[in-house]
Design goal:
Oligomer: heterodimer
Helix content of chain B: under 10%
Distance between the termini of chain B: 10 Å
CATH superfamily of chain B: Rieske [2Fe-2S] iron-sulphur domain
CATH class of chain B: Mainly Beta
Order of helices and strands of chain B: EEEEEEEEE
Order of helices and strands of chain A: EHHEEEEEEHEE
Helix content of chain A: 10-25%
Radius of gyration of chain A: 17 Å
Shape of chain B: globular
Distance between the termini of chain A: 36 Å
Strand order of the largest sheet of chain A: 1-7-6-5-4-3-2
Number of helices of chain A: 3
Number of helices of chain B: 0
Shape of chain A: globular
Number of domains of chain B: 1
Number of strands of chain B: 9
Radius of gyration of chain B: 13 Å
CATH architecture of chain B: 3-layer Sandwich
Chain lengths: 186, 98
């Protein structure tokens, strides 16, 4: 059973800031309460394979998930998630620049569900949209502040650098992190 | 040398400095007034003054409240600090640190 739907939003930050947030896997564990575990299995300049545990809403149940992220040639992102109960999801994340600090994010979801999910067909997009809303709201202050930091000349792993004022850094993958990052810990 | 006079009502006090083009936090530790940038040197997250430490919730980076060095990651990185001199109970002069 296939379910397709789209979620679209605009935000007053650059495309690079949006992509930074998408590829900053480490914040999943600290910012998004739904994730209780995050471990990087493999990554390079185009892909990342991450294992997470997510908490189901309203229930003390944690589920193992595998996220496969690919950076496409145009910079957009495709995420293939392998979820419990035989659920496969494809998420195409499109980033449309409407201005230097105005980006539209379009998330195209395709869910491949076993037949026994049929009775829940109507509810599943609503649950995912609700999940997406929560993540969006939790990420919002990070993106806005990140844009502000870049505007004043912030440089990663350094701090404010007056020579970098107004310079929009280009995202390089994989994103740098410390060796003792939570993503590296077994 | 850039100089700014900051007026604060209570501590810790956070404000945006147009002089230094930075968001600055003033706080008191062991009767000493301290001024730091509020941007975590990792990815620019918001630093908060806690009990004996300064922390950023984005990636759980923690810094020493006194010397501003990162204390929970295997990396030598510090928060940007400013030179500060109190000139009244509610005012201080802030300058770039040497």
């Amino acid at each position: 059973m296939l379910i397709k739907f789209e979620i679209s939003r605009k935000i007053n930050v650059s495309k690079e800031v949006c992509l930074w947030n998408t590829w900053d896997h480490e914040h999943l564990y600290f910012v998004h309460k739904q994730f209780s575990f995050a471990k990087m299995l493999y990554e390079n300049s185009h892909v990342a394979f991450i294992r997470t545990k997510i908490k189901l809403p309203f229930l003390p149940i944690y589920l193992n998930c595998l996220h496969s992220m690919t950076r496409l040639e145009n910079g957009d992102v495709m995420v293939i998630d392998t979820l419990p109960f035989g659920i496969l999801t494809k998420l195409e994340m499109k980033y449309i620049e409407h201005g230097p600090k105005l980006t539209e994010l379009i998330n195209l979801y395709t869910l491949d569900l076993p037949c026994f999910f049929y009775p829940f067909k109507v509810f599943i997009p609503k649950i995912i949209k609700n999940w997406n809303d929560i993540n969006w709201l939790e990420d919002l202050p990070l993106k806005i502040r990140r844009q502000h930091a870049i505007d004043i000349g912030f440089r990663d792993f350094y701090g404010k650098d007056d020579s970098k004022r107004g310079v929009q850094p280009t995202l390089r993958l994989p994103m740098a992190r410390t060796k003792d990052s939570i993503l590296n810990i077994e | 040398m850039l100089t700014e006079i900051c007026t604060f009502q209570s501590l810790p006090y956070k404000y945006h400095s147009t002089i230094f083009n930075d968001e600055i936090i003033l706080y008191e530790y062991e009767d000493k007034l301290i001024a730091i940038s509020s941007f975590c040197p990792h990815f620019g997250g918001p630093l908060e003054i806690g009990e004996g430490v300064i922390s950023c919730y984005w990636h759980n980076w923690i810094f020493d409240i006194c010397n501003h060095h990162c204390i929970n990651k295997k990396i030598k990185l510090s928060i940007r600090s400013y030179k500060i001199e109190r000139i009244s109970p509610i005012q201080a002069i802030i300058q770039y640190a040497d």
